[in-house]
Amino acid sequence: MRLYGLLDFKTGYRKLDGTTRVRCTFFGQVCRENFFPLEFDPKRIAGIQSNRSLVDFLISDARFMKLREVSVVYTLPDAWATALRASQATVSLAGRNLHTWTGYTGLDPEAMFLGGSRGGNFSQWEQADLPQLTQWIVTVNLAY
After folding, report:
1. How many alpha carbons fall within 13 Å on the CB side of residue 103?
2. pLDDT tens digits, residue range 38-50?
């Protein structure tokens, strides 16, 4: 049996939070900060209520760590491989994009606009993108 895991991280990374921009400065200012201002930093409230004159509240710390993959590979007994007319057989189970640790308040610190659902040249706009989906994969390998 073999176990494998992959952690990925990015530090020193700041990002324009396009989701907060749209929620708090457009479309009737429908962000929580406008309804419960005492729950937030006064500088953030001032930025939101500044009619887009102050925009520092939109720049967020976007550092993250992600559990990209965990997998287990099991080598089946030789008798099972022989029954399948193979010299070796393995079964694996892998989970991908399992968890993200971040203080970023937007959708996903890696989500970007204008490049499909995951990337592009204008990384500040993310409100129309999807975060990476969690995947579970089962694989059977036969060696002949």
Report:
1. 8
2. 998 898 888 888 8
